[in-house]
Amino acid sequence: MLRRDREMTVEVRERMRGGRGTVSIRHLEERLPPMCRLFAELTLKPGCSIGEHEHTHETELFTFISGAGTVTDDGLSMAVKAGDTTSTPSGHSHSVANTGKDDLVIIAAIIKDPPSAD
Amino acid sequence: MLRRDREMTVEVRERMRGGRGTVSIRHLEERLPPMCRLFAELTLKPGCSIGEHEHTHETELFTFISGAGTVTDDGLSMAVKAGDTTSTPSGHSHSVANTGKDDLVIIAAIIKDPPSAD
């Protein structure tokens, strides 16, 4: 199945997870695989951020396509730029902020954990 | 967990799935979530391709970051460019070729199907 850029839904979130400004979420695929909760391109304008939040029973992968920013990983702050990737498994928290002059563009995938045996 | 561009493994595959030339696979995350088999940046130089192949018990998502090419989706050929996304669920087949003048860069994620009840 092919989805064209122009067919995709763009969601605009204000103060996402308590962050600053707005985040555009371009949903790359609407019929997601059962174990995938999100596959999207996130765009943060300069000065915008997604506040710190924890993931449970899933892992979020971010790969940075363009721009520069800072992330926190369980509270530890680090600079990131295009080419870097972060992984936030269940029980861990993260945030991301655009600290550069250009848009910060991220491909984000959230993969659900397998059903637990307990 | 943060992984820097320079820390990532780049795998070079010749004639991948029967395609032409070489494909560079930059593995964005080595400690993948349990239900994710691949999270990688694929780079196809002009004229290079990945041959047609079927996925079983998993879905492959491609989002095209830059360049232009053609994909097949169950044998049907379509032009693609940056901004487009394809989804290839279990039981379906695809291929991809760089038909442009620039590198074709793709973020690829393979998500495993949940354990079957049967």
Question: How would you sum up this structure, described in words?
Answer:
- The structure is a homodimer of 118-residue chains.
- Chain A is mainly beta and 118 residues long.
- In chain A, 0% of the residues lie in helices and 59% in strands.
- Chain A is built from no helices and 11 strands.
- Chain A has strands spanning 2-3, 10-14, 22-27, 36-44, 49-55, 58-66, 68-73, 76-81, 85-88, 92-98, 104-112.
- In chain A, strands 2-3-4-11-6-9 form a 6-stranded antiparallel beta sheet, with no helix packed on it. The first copy, chain A, has a 4-stranded antiparallel beta sheet with strand order 5-10-7-8, with no helix packed on it.
- In chain A, a hairpin with an 8-residue loop joins strand 3 (22-27) and strand 4.
- The mean pLDDT of chain A is 96.
- The A-B interface holds A 1-5, 8, 28-29, 31, 33-36, 39, 41, 58-59, 61, 63, 65, 71, 73, 78, 80, 82-89, 107, 109, 111-115 and B 1-5, 8, 28-29, 31, 33-36, 39, 41, 58-59, 61, 63, 65, 71, 73, 78, 80, 82-89, 107, 109, 111-115.
